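Quarterly update from the structural biology core.
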Amino acid sequence: MDAIVKTAGNKNNCTFCGVFRRQALDRGAMMLKVDKIVTGHNADDIAETVIMNVLRGDISRLSRCTAITTASEGMLPRCKPLKYTYEKEIVMYAYFKKLDYFSTECIYSPNAYRGFARAYIKDLEIIRPSSIIDIIHSGESLAIKKQIKLPVQRTCSRCHFMSSQPVCKACVLLEGLNKGVPRLGIGKTHKERRKMEEKLSALKVETAGDNGCCQTSDSCCGGSTPNMVNGQCNGTEQEKKGDGDTCINSTIDADRHSLAHSHTHLSNTINQQVSL
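Predicted structure, tokenized:
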């Protein structure tokens, strides 16, 4: 995670950690040939997830985040037996039974989106102690209209693990890290496309400024080969005045050719990094 944070920044760390951790569980379970994955998600975790999915408008995850067991055909089922158990109850049990448990938070979690949902729920608990269970029951009672199309669980075309898209989130994030675009798999891809287009525009301006007269065309200055001083035309007065239009037109054509080449190169780069 230290290397990822160094590349991606302090935001969206939980996205990388959560996606890679879940796939690591799947990979480990398949290596051990187990038939079920059991996680320690408690009532606090599920209530936070419900709030996060509501705020993000993530209907597909909202419909399954409160289920004790989730499974797709051909995939390992996951179950959460501690769904209705409060976090503080688990800590008290581990403390009195003298069990080892982690009592410190991840150093990157203060910047995570989940932290705001957790703080909100803790404030609700002060007003209404049953708010955590109430939120879970609300999530269980939510119904989705029949005409709403939800993503179908499938397998990733690259790694062949569970995914709701042709290419799973883990592969997208990994590709972004390898290509130096860590935010490629986070949020909307059009933001990264816009950044690449801004780089394209900047390169166009730079290319247009670097191309000088008489450097790219033999037809410049009447077709003769003029003297060059610091990249500028140093032909005779007749060459400069009489055929000035030819010189300017040749330079414009050269600039257009150079810009078209730059546009094609960067367009290919955009398509490789954004189209998945």
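The first helix runs from residue 2 to 8.
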